[in-house]
Write a structure and sequence with these properties.
Strand order of the largest sheet: 1-2
Distance between the termini: 22 Å
Largest sheet: 2 strands, antiparallel
Number of helices: 10
Structural class: mainly alpha
Shape: globular
Order of helices and strands: HHHHHHHEEHHH
Strand content: under 5%
Radius of gyration: 17 Å
């Protein structure tokens, strides 16, 4: 059997909740110790000086209360059911695989564009990948925007990704790392191709 496609023994231990609690705890520490954000955020200049852990820790650091609130809400909504389907071990591998690679790609782009002092914070890259997985596994699922407007999960993921792409191309909301969000989505897509030999687009359109 191809080792890349070897399945994990299924287990479930609510990794989604653990991730949410960990993010909340880190945000509380950031509020108490503001300089901690410098160590946790992925800043290319610091990575070059040896702070390689930032490729992981940037996913647990957030810039504001609204930033972490919306990220954790999305992780709860899309992550809980996705984790139950994948199993907790697979879910965590997927989450960190997409998040770390999104951070590495962002680092490369930041270096090429001279943004060596720009810090990257937030779990959005990994969460975009989780949204892709949710839409792929549950294409008929309906998400209620603001609790009112019903939208099918695949369409919602397409809308989110289109907004990110448009914002990145036209420079809207420069403070948001649109590239990282799209990178998480892209690496999630590659994970499906390599791990499951499945095209997410076919899964989302019901063409298995």
């Amino acid at each position: 059997m191809n080792p890349i496609r070897k399945p994990f023994v299924y287990s479930y231990f609510n990794a989604t909740l653990i991730l949410i609690v960990a993010n909340a705890a880190v945000f509380a520490l950031q509020s108490l110790l503001p300089r901690l954000s410098v160590l946790l955020a992925m800043t290319p200049l610091l990575v070059l000086r040896g702070c390689l852990w930032q490729f992981v820790t940037y996913m647990f650091a957030h810039a504001s209360f609204s930033h972490i609130l919306f990220n954790m809400l999305a992780l709860f909504v899309f992550g809980s059911r996705t984790e139950r389907y994948m199993g907790s071990k697979e879910f965590l591998v997927y989450y960190f695989f997409t998040g770390i690679l999104a951070g590495i790609l962002s680092f490369v782009v930041f270096m090429l564009t001279g943004a060596t002092h720009v810090p990257l914070l937030g779990a959005s890259g990994a969460i975009f990948a989780v949204q892709l997985a949710y839409a792929s596994f549950f294409p008929d699922s309906v998400i209620y925007i603001w609790g009112i407007l019903p939208v099918r999960a695949p369409l919602l993921v397409l809308i989110f990704s289109s907004i990110e792409l448009f914002s990145m191309v036209f420079g809207i909301s420069n403070g948001v790392a649109h590239l990282t969000h799209l990178a998480g989505f892209g690496f999630g897509w590659l994970y499906f191709l390599a791990r499951y030999s499945a095209n997410p687009l076919r899964l989302m359109t019901g063409r298995r």
